Amino acid sequence: MNDKTLLIMAELEDNNLKPVTFDLVAAALKMTGGATRSILMAVTGTSPDAAASEAASRTGIDVLAVTVTASITSDIRKQAAAFVAGEFAPSYILCPHSAEGTDYAPALAVRLNAACISAVSGVVIDVDGNLLFSRSICGGQFNALIKPATSPAVIMIQPGAFQVQAYEGTAGAVETTTFEAGPGALRMNGVEKSRETSSELDKAKVIVSAGRGIGEPGNLDAIRRFAALFPGSAVGGSRPLIDMGWLEYRHQVGITGATVSPSVYIACGISGSTQHIAGMNGSGYVIAINSDPNAAIFNYSDLCIVDDIMGFIEAFEDFIKNGEG
Amino acid sequence: MNILVLIKQVPQTEAATDISPSGDFIERSTVTLYKMNRFDEYALEEALRIKESHSGVHVDVMTLGPDRAKEVIRRAYGMGADNGFHILAADNEYLDPSAVAELLAREAAKGSYDLIFCGVMSEDMMQSQTGQMTAENLGLPCVSSAVSVSVDEGAKSLRVKRELEGGVRHDITVSMPCLLTIQAGINTPRYPSLSKVLRAADKEVLTVDGQGASPRQVCSAIRHPEKQRAGVVVEGGRTEKVRELYRVLRQKNILG
Lengths: 325, 256
What we know:
The complex is a heterodimer of chains A (325) and B (256).
Chain A: E1 6-9, E2 12-13, E3 16-17, H1 20-32, E4 39-45, H2 49-59, E5 62-68, H3 74-88, E6 92-96, H4 99-111, E7 115-125, E8 131-137, E9 142-148, E10 153-157, E11 174-179, E12 186-192, H5 199-203, E13 206-210, H6 220-228, E14 233-237, H7 239-243, E15 264-268, H8 274-280, E16 285-290, E17 303-306, H9 309-321
Parallel strand pairs in A: 1-4, 1-6, 4-5, 5-11, 6-10, 7-10, 13-14, 13-15, 15-16, 16-17
Antiparallel strand pairs in A: 2-3, 7-8, 8-9
Helix pairs in contact in A: 3-4
Chain B: E1 2-7, E2 9-11, E3 18-19, E4 26-27, E5 34-36, H1 38-53, E6 58-65, H2 70-79, E7 83-88, H3 97-108, E8 115-119, H4 130-138, E9 142-152, E10 157-163, E11 169-175, E12 178-182, H5 194-199, E13 205-209, E14 217-223, E15 232-233, H6 238-251
Parallel strand pairs in B: 1-6, 1-8, 6-7, 7-13, 8-12, 9-12
Antiparallel strand pairs in B: 2-5, 3-4, 9-10, 10-11
Helix pairs in contact in B: 3-4
């Protein structure tokens, strides 16, 4: 396994593969032009063998199962990742831009004197044949094309950004190794399971979501009235509204909240950060209403209405009330 | 106990930014209003709450940016920070998080801090790297995305809850000194108080030169994102927009 130039760091939960692992595979294949030969996946856990076999058969990629001899906290994960990277000297190390990935990958890059490019949602090859990594900046308004100046480079892949393909060919080879963890600085006391998200959001045919563009919490009444015009609808919100206490957590749409896919999603005053888009991009039809014509949400919308959200809703209500003209 | 909070100045809104004429970064000379990064406000508030609930706590702040970045230190003074440090860096230039973290760690190492806080990411560059890298450069343990923090001064440790996807939380004990990146929603950041702003009017901001860090990545180009859906913009005045939305919703049969 010494001809590997691209190392994928699988993400596990309770020794099971998390779906984001396959996002990393999709990104890696984009980088290699579809070839699996130069790719190695490290599956690191306290008991990783079953997940490693599964990964090898579902992707055709060669897999290294890394058994860690201690319970895995983020500082142990850093040690293990540096150990694996040190064994293979790859040109690129792919980690997920997840809560776990963002916790260890930047530190791993420091240990390896490597560049670290986060939240990567696209790969582009420039005229000289270099790989450039595209990432969303400024609340989604622009994409920056970043070129690493080091080898290895740590590349953190935005979940959901690359098209995952099913694989039905020959399984990759699996090798195993053990990592003797040193002492860790963190102690895990326990895990609190996910907070309840709204079953209303899951069931809703129409979701009317509010963002910071609504201005003040009192304007949520108008959003609720607007939503009430559509039978089977629910009210959602972007993370900043929940952080400010305007809406309860069960209304939150996005990576750290609910992932929704209603027939129609109406985004009111939502700028369209990557974290929000990831939670609603599976919706059937997306309508965005925002006063900023450059808001990123419009890139993810079928119908774009540039207007002041409160004035627009009022006018829409009047229109309905007055017998639709 | 000494706490350092890393804060960043970001544009008030991105509406005024555009791609720079050279095409390799964003143009901000048109931006007139700046503010403290929202996530760093939560980090500073959390530090100030520890200061108020324990005795003998000092809260310092540090920022890296062009000359105007000093304004966020003034704001931090208004909120209750004790000392501010400014690392002078270029404007209108892509900053590699590795280089930023190297400079922050170099300056932070000159103090004797038990705790370092920063926001979970910046609103403009959205890297989620600076804190983790700064901790690694300083050889400190790091917990990212903290949504609850309690200090055990006797044990010189912190009990931290960190947030993962879907609202899952990890309950972690970490010994001090350490670095935490603070997630939004952990508290409600205060506004600067007039009396503190007035008292801080003559207060010094120590500026040091941000030279000597080597970037490990460069920004080759900035692009507008491609449209991922139809993106039909409704033309006309408000009446036309209302009519068009009504027509579309009617067609989709979702109006009651």
